[in-house]
Amino acid sequence: MGNICRSPLLEGWAAHRCADSPVAFTVDSAGTGGWHAGQPPDPRAVAAARRHGVDIAGQRARQLQHDDFQRFDLLLCADRDNLAAARSLAPGSAHPRIVLALEWCGVKRGGEVPDPYYGQERDFDHVCQLASEAADGLLRRLASGA
C-alpha cells in the first residue's frame, strides 16, 4: 500500500511512546507500493493523530526498500496483504521478522489494522486507537526482551 494512512499512524504512535520509554528503538514506516512516495500523510490521518496529541505531519511516504530487511530487526505490517507483499520482497531469512502489527504487539491475535482511506473521521480515530494500543504493546514486548 501507499504509506499515507495506517503506517504513518503506527509510526507516529510508536515514536510518541518511545519518547517516554526506557527502551530505545528506531521507528520508520514504508509502503509496499510507491505511488505516494514523498507525499505527507493523508490530511485526515494528520488531523486524527493531532486530535490524540501525536504529530505525524512531518512524515513523508516512502516505499519499502531491500535494505530495510537488514536495517530493521522487526517489520510490523498493518494487514495480511502488506504482510504477503513485504515477505515477497524479502529474503527468506527475514520472513520470521515480518509480522502483523496488532498480533505481535499483543493487541489482537490475527488482527489487522483496517484501512481508513475510504472511511470517515471515526475510522481514522479507530486506527489511532489501534495504533496507540499497538505502541503500548510494542513497548511492553521490547521491555520484556521478547
What would you say this structure looks like, in words?
With 146 residues, this protein is mostly helical. It contains six helices and two strands. The N and C termini lie far apart (28 Å). The protein has a single domain (6-144), classed as Rossmann fold (3-Layer(aba) Sandwich), CATH 3.40.50.2300. The protein has a two-stranded parallel sheet. Helix 4 (80-89) links the parallel strand 1 and strand 2. The protein has helices spanning 6-18, 43-51, 68-71, 80-89, 101-104, 121-144; strands at residues 75-77, 98-100.
The radius of gyration over CA amounts to 14 Å
CATH superfamily descriptor: Response regulator
* Count of individual domains: 1
Cα distance spanning the termini:
28 Å
Overall mean confidence score, pLDDT: 96
| Uncertain ranges | none
Helical fraction equals 40-55%
Shape: globular
CATH fold call: Rossmann fold
Instruction: Output the helix-strand order.
Output: HHHEHEHH
CATH class: Alpha Beta
Computed structural class: mainly alpha
Please give the largest β-sheet: 2 strands, parallel
**Portion in strands:** under 5%
Number of helices in the DSSP assignment: 6
Enumerate the strands of the largest sheet in spatial order, edge to edge or round the barrel. Answer: 1-2
Q: How many E-type strands?
A: 2
CATH architecture: 3-Layer(aba) Sandwich
